[in-house]
């Protein structure tokens, strides 16, 4: 089976297994997803969802966060880890949205990348979930699973994995495919325990058998990077 055919088969099986899979970060506005995905670096999505409730209760808008002292933001987001750098990035990002984009999040990938604290994973998440545009989010679940499945071979760098997947995954499927990998990575193809291959819907086509992967040690902590 070619990698292209393997990719399509994996997509279809994961669709059946996780038909309602979506982003596990809670948000109802684009800027809130931007904040949450920054906080999710080396932190679980579940914890981020709790912390942002307090953040938005005190600073309920882009303007409020842009005007807030960084120290006040840091006090609230500290439970997510890396509080100082995350607070600094959130503050700077909100200032740019207020001053340069009239309080809106740009729907351009390159403009997103120029925002403080926004990397390719974050920009792809915003493009796919908020704007419905083609996106591939190469978080640690994605990197681990596509290596195990045989879609890529021994590639650990997020951007290189992303570029390889663009050649295999139909653009309209990319965002949902990556969300389903997160669900599958948490429930079946786990990082910190032996994968539950016996109950995996991909067992008969997975390339894991005979393949060693050293990609799991940083997993289990949310998206582990932006």
What's the alpha carbon Rg, rounded to whole Å?
A: 18 Å
| Structural class determined from secondary elements | mainly alpha
Biggest sheet statistics:
none
Give the N-terminus to C-terminus distance in angstroms: 33 Å
Residue-averaged pLDDT, rounded?
A: 92
Gross geometry: elongated
Spans where pLDDT lies below 50 across 5 or more residues: 210-225
Secondary-structure element pattern, one letter each = HHHHHHHHHHH
Number of strands: 0
Question: Proportion of β residues?
Answer: under 5%
User: What's the total helix number?
Assistant: 11
Helicity, as a percent range: 40-55%
What's the SSE blueprint?
Blueprint: H1 3-17, H2 30-39, H3 45-58, H4 62-67, H5 70-77, H6 83-100, H7 109-113, H8 120-129, H9 140-149, H10 158-166, H11 174-187
Describe this structure in words.
This protein is mainly alpha-helical. The chain is 53% helix and 0% strand. The chain is built from 11 helices and no strands. The chain has helices at 3-17, 30-39, 45-58, 62-67, 70-77, 83-100, 109-113, 120-129, 140-149, 158-166, 174-187. Helix 2 (30-39) crosses helix 3 (45-58). The longest helix has 18 residues, at 83-100. It is elongated and about 55 Å long. It starts with a helix and ends in a 39-residue tail after the last helix. Residues 210-225 have low confidence and may be disordered.
